[in-house]
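ok, trying the design again with the full structure, not the truncated one.
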């Protein structure tokens, strides 16, 4: 017999405390709208006789009568193997059969949301501001673009990315800058350097 899995109670929404009230309201409205328009629940059931031999919507392999299958009401009469019922982007299995759909594809909640809004690399919340900071393919709320070590604001300031996270020049030099072989002083992010066989010098007459 077919069975529809019961949706567990939705956990209380959590938001970054640094978000402005207006942005938090936009996030709540966006979440409610996409749950209403795109959220679906798969139906796990043995493949019925009339669907014997039909192809899996994802892999194309046939599904035989009595095989475990999954159908998705928002996506028409297609069927999937349970292992094929996964997020189009990250391929995470949607083992609880809760999905979001967009343009005929199924997504986990996280990657469906990212089709519409960028995500802050610091607080991990969606960004609804007109302005954000982008560096190395990642985005931040302007107020969250801070030094990873000392938390100094970096908007409009000089910074260096280390391991994908922003650092002020001072913290970067104290943590990552290597010493010059001649003078022993750190070779800062803005300094020109000369290298040879893995050794480094300031690229100036006094050192190299």
């Amino acid at each position: 017999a077919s069975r529809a899995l019961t949706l567990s109670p939705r956990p209380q929404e959590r938001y970054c405390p640094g978000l402005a009230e207006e942005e938090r309201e936009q996030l709540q409205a966006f979440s409610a709208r996409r749950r209403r328009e795109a959220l679906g629940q798969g139906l796990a059931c043995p493949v019925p006789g009339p669907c014997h031999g039909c192809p899996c919507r994802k892999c194309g392999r046939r599904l035989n009568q009595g095989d475990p299958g999954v159908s998705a009401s928002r996506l028409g009469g297609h069927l999937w193997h349970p292992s094929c019922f996964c997020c189009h982007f990250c391929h995470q299995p949607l083992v609880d059969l809760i999905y979001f759909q967009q343009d005929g594809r199924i997504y986990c909640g996280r990657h469906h949301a990212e089709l519409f809004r960028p995500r802050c690399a610091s607080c991990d919340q969606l960004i609804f501001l007109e302005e954000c900071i982008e560096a190395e393919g990642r985005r931040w709320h302007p107020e969250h673009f801070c030094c990873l070590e000392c938390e100094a604001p970096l908007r409009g300031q000089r910074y260096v990315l280390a391991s994908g996270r922003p650092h002020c020049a001072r913290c970067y030099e104290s943590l990552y800058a290597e010493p010059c072989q001649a003078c022993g002083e750190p070779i800062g992010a803005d300094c020109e350097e000369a290298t040879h066989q893995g050794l480094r010098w300031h690229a100036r007459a006094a050192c190299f």
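Keeping the full-length input from now on. The chain has three domains: 16-113, 118-176, 179-208.
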